[in-house]
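Weekly structure sync, notes
Attendees: PL (lead), two postdocs, one rotation student
Agenda item 3: pending single-chain targets
PL asked that the sequence for the first pending target be pasted directly into the notes so everyone works from the same version. It is reproduced below exactly as submitted, 259 residues in total.
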Amino acid sequence: MSYETLTGLVAREVNTGEADRYLTLLTVESGKVECYAKGIRNQKSKLSASAGILTYGEYKLFQNRERRILTSGQTLENFSGIRTDVVKYAYAVHFLEIARDVIQEAQVFPEALRTLLNTLYVLAYREFEPELAARIFEVRMLAAAGFAPVLERCSVCGAELSARAYFALYGDGTVCGRESCRGRASPVRTVSAGTLRALRHIVECEPGELFSFAVSDPVKAELAGIVPAYLRHHFGKEYKKLGEAERYLAFEREMRPRV
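Predicted structure, written out during the meeting:
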């Protein structure tokens, strides 16, 4: 039996019993950590303010033979700009699900955790389009997990890309214009030079430059047409929260006053 102090983000919460919760923390020191928060749903609980979903903090846990038990917490950041916006919150939940799939138990993964925290900060406090933030986060996490798309050559034959390039939705990235390559990589989508530049920036840039660029509407549309499918293929699951976030965003746009 022992105590440990971990710094991390509450990435999932599941109610259990009358007032308890199981929490998933994504931590700096130990990767993904599952713990039990007894009485956290009671109004007088000191844990409720510091250990809610999307809270980044410092947490003290007691380890017994069966499980980790959360005993105290101190909030470092609560991303308040997300909590009052249904669209941002829905996208944030999508990001958390991806991060839980990428970061494993007892796996120290600073790059993935930093990407998650930076994306949540941008979503909370900057005027940045949530759907573009989603594409950036998805591509960067794919790269962190070892699934960065091939972007400089044909992923089938290795040849240099021509002026007309394609992207294999269920393959390894870009495909040249040869009919045989497109057939082997099918299904493919046409991608513009602007989309390739955006993808290269996301994969290769320094962390501080990840959200320092803008793209045109056609490029955003192309990214939306290829990245979620590529993510779904390589991570082997359907991210249903993304669809929910997109529906909220579409409804919000429909409700905006027309100029």
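Discussion points:
- The domain at 81-153+158-255 is CATH 1.20.1440.120 (de novo design (two linked rop proteins)).
- Helices lie at 80-83, 86-102, 110-125, 130-144, 179-185, 193-204, 217-235, 240-255.
Action: rotation student to compare against the earlier draft before next sync.
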